[in-house]
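Field reference: sequence -> structure
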Amino acid sequence: MKALKEQDVSHELKIIPYWGIVDGKLERVYDLGTFPKAIGFVNAISVYSESKDHHPIIEVNYTKVKLRLFTWCKEALTQLDFDAASYFDFLYNDEV
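Structure field:
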């Protein structure tokens, strides 16, 4: 997996409009409405993340879940980050 160039990152962000770049990492906050739904969402993320061996930074604040993605071994954003973000959006849309 190679590091994405700035133009590739800009293109990918158009596909996942609720995500942004914060401190060089792909980031989004989801509001699940209830604490149990937030934890269920995190559990679903963990299954995907384990299967891909690609794990986001996760913060849970009651009903909100903040995810940050970055490919540490490349010290950059890669397609793996954007694929994960798209899948997490799919999971979220299935939850709410």
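Note: The longest strand covers residues 25-31.
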